[in-house]
Design brief:
Length: about 140
């Protein structure tokens, strides 16, 4: 199974940005974790991170007929991007939303997820483990 993992704005700043919320591990550690989780499930992953909404939309569209599923942490675009929602709906791939922090326990504006409206499942507030759970869900290998 081929899975596209998309991380949105500021995820590349892990370990620097608000470590009390997002943890002290850096972005390289997250990517290594995702690769390991995929290998455990027998999946191949394509990793992508961008701070630009259009680039994320382009990558989702790129996945059409190339990938079997999408794991997406749209980060701040979660709460604002109808464009990402529409791209996910357009490609029609199974998608799972991930958030490192518990967005539902934070500011009220973070409680709305446009991208999540096109996702089969969401893993919220599990830190890096949310990515493992998302990959396991897509590969049918949930424990």
């Amino acid at each position: 199974m081929n899975i596209l993992v998309i991380n949105g704005p500021n995820i590349n700043m892990l370990g620097i940005r608000e470590p009390d919320i997002y943890g002290k591990q850096d972005f390289a550690a997250l990517e290594a974790f995702i690769r390991q989780a995929a290998a455990e499930c027998g999946a191949q992953v394509e990793l992508f991170q961008s701070n630009h909404e259009g680039a994320i939309v382009d990558k989702i569209q790129w996945a059409y007929r190339k990938m079997d599923g999408i794991v997406i942490n749209p980060a701040a675009y979660t709460h604002t991007s109808v464009a990402i929602l529409d791209a996910l709906k357009a490609v029609g791939l199974p998608a799972v939303e991930v958030h490192l922090s518990d967005v539902n326990a934070r500011e009220e504006f973070r409680h709305i997820s446009y991208a999540g409206m096109a996702c089969e499942k969401s893993y919220i507030g599990m830190g890096f483990e949310g990515y493992r759970a998302a990959i396991q869900y897509l590969t049918g290998k949930q424990r």
